[in-house]
Specification:
With about 70 residues, this protein is mainly α. The protein has 3 helices and no strands. The radius of gyration is 16 Å and the shape is extended. The termini are far apart.
C-alpha cells in the first residue's frame, strides 16, 4: 500500500506585465546569490506574493485603485 501526499505546489499559467518581469528577475538573482544556488522565477514570485499578502485586504485593494501601468 502506498500513501500519496498532496504537494503544496500548484501549476497555473500566468500572464505578467512586461514591466514586472525585470524586477522579478532582479529579486530572483539576489535570492540566488543569498541562497548560493539557482532560483526559479516561481520561487521569487512566491516570495513577492508572501510579502504582498502580508498586507491587509484593504491595503491590497487600495493598490488596485491606483492608475494602470502605462
Amino acid at each position: 500500500m502506498s500513501f500519496h501526499t498532496a504537494t503544496p505546489l500548484v501549476r497555473f499559467n500566468l500572464h505578467l506585465h512586461r514591466l514586472h518581469i525585470t524586477p522579478l528577475i532582479r529579486i530572483a538573482d539576489r535570492l540566488a546569490s543569498e541562497k548560493g544556488r539557482d532560483v526559479r522565477l516561481g520561487e521569487a514570485l512566491e516570495l513577492i506574493l508572501n510579502a504582498g499578502l502580508s498586507r491587509s485586504d484593504d491595503a491590497l485593494l487600495a493598490l488596485g485603485k491606483r492608475p494602470a501601468i502605462p
